[in-house]
Amino acid sequence: MGLPDYHMVRAAPSPVAPFSHACEVDGWIYLTGQMPTDPDDDSKPPPDGVEAQTRRVMDNLKLVLGGVGLDLGNVVQARVYLTHFDRDYAAMNEVYRSYFPPGQLPARTCIGVTGLAVGALVEIDMVARRPDAAFKE
After folding, report:
1. pTM of the complete model
2. Contact between residue 123 and residue 56 where contact means Cβ atoms under 8 Å apart
3. Mapping DSSP to helix (H, G, I), strand (E, B) and coil, where does residue 86 land?
4. What's the chain's Rg over C-alpha atoms?
5. In a domain, 28, yes or no
6. Domain range for 37
7. Which of 88, 114, 116, 118 would bridge with 50, disulfide CB 3.0–4.6 Å?
8. The CATH number of the domain where 115 resides is what?
9. CA atoms within 13 A on the CB side of 76
């Protein structure tokens, strides 16, 4: 196993805590959970409602993926965190699903939490794989 590469993506939002946007090892890319922060002005409050926040989070994840030369088609797994699970689950799912072609959804876990940074309603992290990364045992 190689040593990790730590990626900070200039186009992505400023981190809200001490972390890299993504860490990569042996073709696997682990994306830090993204918040619904504006990549052009992180002092703006998150958008209103889980639908708008989910769109912003997914767009931020696309920025991070693009910064490492990938896109949502490389994502193999996602974790979604919701502060109001029962209320927001269906609406978040509708927006989330719209980012992927039918039948090409990553594996996913969705978790209800008591709070998220910046007062967010939703946070999503992902794991992606480079297509040219050879499998080694």
Report:
1. 0.93
2. no
3. helix
4. 15
5. yes
6. 5-129
7. 88
8. 3.30.1330.40
9. 9
